[in-house]
Amino acid sequence: MTADAWESARDLLSDNGRCVVACHINPDADALGSALALGLALRSRGREVVVSFGTDDPAWHVPDALAFLPGHDLLAEPSTVLSGPTPALVVTTDTGSADRLGPLLPLLERADAVLVVDHHATNTRFGTVNLIDITAASTTVVVAQLVHGLADLDADIATCLYAGLVTDTGSFRFAATTPDVHRLAAELLEAGADPVAVGRELFDTATFAGVKLLGTAVARACLEDGVIWTSVGYEERTRLGLPIASIEGVIDVIRTAAEVDVAVVCKGVAPGQWSVSMRSRGATDVGAVAVALGGGGHKLAAGFTAHVATPEEAVALVRAQLP
């Protein structure tokens, strides 16, 4: 990132006027944690700010695993945001392309300026200003640097930032974990983030139905030529009343198989539509695979949407892009 990009980003955030902070559809802890941390910092400066995101579920809701994040009073449904006043600024967090905003996409044309804050190398740079650090372990790392120039780091902001940091580093196990990552983690803990509480909510809490479905998904996993894959269908998931966010952890289980380099999970979003998540141990650039299929991400973690009838067809799309 250039010094000009940082200066332009800080200028946009320092202005007055209504600001909408939006993250990608079905947000994870990095996306929503970044958005809420930035929203809390902006509000502390007296700026009018609202945070929003879209979901693939019929009823809009905050994912259960992220309900503990501070700043809920900043949140609003996309329909409420779109019917509100025109924003002076839209900030997107952890969102690799404009279409990933889902129902919030129209905001980009209405806003006076768009600031894109991200760490994905595959980001399409759709903003007026693009603040993208592909060396950052998480988007919350980039947001933490922005917050330092905007507001005091309190426990609420630190909790939001820590949630994104701990998830995108795999609890500090992934290659993106650097000495600077640990230094930031220490700063966030000193500011009041509780690692025990955050870890319990993000990694150690699930519904019984979710646990049962996890077991079913793992039991049906297939191992073929170094690729392990499984699926959770739309009807199967909705019959149990589970949101799509409840099955995000499936890939973290199957990817541990020692015999594989690539893990794939196909999650039914709707009939004929699959959200496909991919992970790599390092030999395969799944980010390149995702981009070729209309998605994005990183070398070791990426995804795309497949409009096909069966998960077998979705996996076939992946295989066709593999070396």
Protein described:
The structure is a single chain. With 323 residues, the chain is an alpha/beta fold. The strands form 2 sheets. A 6-stranded mixed sheet has the order 6-7-8-9-11-10, sandwiched between helices. The longest helix is centred in the N-terminal third of the chain and has 16 residues. The mean pLDDT is 95.
Percent helix: 25-40%
Terminal-residue CA separation: 31 Å
Indicate the low-confidence ranges by residue numbers.
none
Overall residue-averaged pLDDT value: 95
Based on Cα principal axes, name the global outline. Answer: globular
H/E topology pattern: HEHEHEHEEHHHHHEEHHEEHEEH
Outline the biggest β-sheet. 6 strands, mixed
Q: What is the number of beta strands? A: 11
How big is the Rg? 19 Å
Can you count the helices? 13
How would you summarize what this structure contains?
The protein is of the alpha/beta class. The chain is built from 13 helices and 11 strands.
Ordered list of secondary-structure elements with their pairings:
Blueprint: H1 3-14, E1 19-23, H2 29-44, E2 49-52, H3 78-82, E3 89-93, H4 107-110, E4 113-118, E5 129-132, H5 139-148, H6 155-168, H7 179-191, H8 195-203, H9 208-219, E6 222-224, E7 227-232, H10 234-239, H11 250-254, E8 262-270, E9 273-280, H12 286-292, E10 296-297, E11 301-306, H13 311-321
Parallel strand pairs: 1-2, 1-3, 3-4, 4-5, 7-8
Antiparallel strand pairs: 6-7, 8-9, 9-11, 10-11
Helix pairs in contact: 2-5, 2-6, 5-6, 6-7, 6-8
